[in-house]
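pipeline stage [seq->struct] | target=Adenine DNA glycosylase | organism=Aureitalea marina | residues=355
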Amino acid sequence: MKEKDSQFSNSLIAWYLENARILPWRSTRDPYLVWLSEIILQQTRVDQGMPYYNRFSQAFPTVHHLADASEETVFKLWQGLGYYSRARNLHFTAKYVSNELDGVFPTSYSELIKLKGVGDYTASAIASICSDEAQAVVDGNVYRVLSRVFGLDTPIDTTLGKRQFRELAQQLIDPKQPGTYNQAIMEFGARYCVPRNPTCEGCIFQSKCVGYKLGKVGELPVKKGKTKVRPVYHNYLVVTSEDGKTLLEKREGRGIWQGLYQFPMTESDQPIGSALPDTVLELYQSKYGLRSVIRYKEEPVIHLLSHRKIYAHFWILQTEELKKEGVDYSRIEEFAVPVLLDNFIREFPVFASGK
């Protein structure tokens, strides 16, 4: 390791040892628990992910417990975290490790990278923390720190950029304490070298930071392309009955919220206006003998995803009874639903009261 590289890693580790947050997954080298924390914290802030880690580690103390759980149970505990493919991959990998590897969770990068839902970053993190393997992590936090301190303006969403940052990260890692180094750079990026308004005054790298010297901290890291966000319109049909039931359906096939439950829904690329389509009304009238149909609120609920902007309306369809196919109001909270629907269920008086 070159002298300037060792100075960088030494400064970072010294800062971390003095300033690191006390987090439950940092007190263990159990690869299962470290893996659990890494999957939960992907695209999730620590303060948001902490309750979920506690919930999962308590409900499933070993990989066998997670493997034996139903998908519905896993999704319900995951509810609100988003990116449900992570939960699906989490469950799949737990079953694989439990059944095919006799519950022995891998700790080497070469074996970890083979697991479903485990990419370069996660494999590097687990291998470095649990088996002291010198594999550098590269995530959003690392891109920010390295691009600013070393003045790298190669777009991070290009093949060249990914290679350059990976090579630099590997060059900088402390081979004697790789796990500590990796956690240090992630911590520094998450708390100090943040995306907007980073704390440059008093920063341990201020005198060496190229981005700071050039006044380009706010421009780094560079990204070539931006995700196009497409507007979509969801119209949820909330059937309520005098016998205290509603309708829920499971989302099948691929796509967002696969495997979660929802009220029957129609999706379109344009608003449908102030009334439901006649075809929808006729179908539900013939099946359930509707007494009234009203839109819950005039203004749509806006729900942002990484690639979609959802405008949601909830239509209340009242009927006399739903019999066997209906779900009792008191049981709604047993089903894993998208946070958009969970918020509605908590707000809607009929469901909130359980009546």
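stage status: PASS
auto-comment: The first helix runs from residue 3 to 19. Strands lie at 230-241, 245-246, 249-250, 261-262, 265-268, 292-295, 301-304, 308-319, 327-328.
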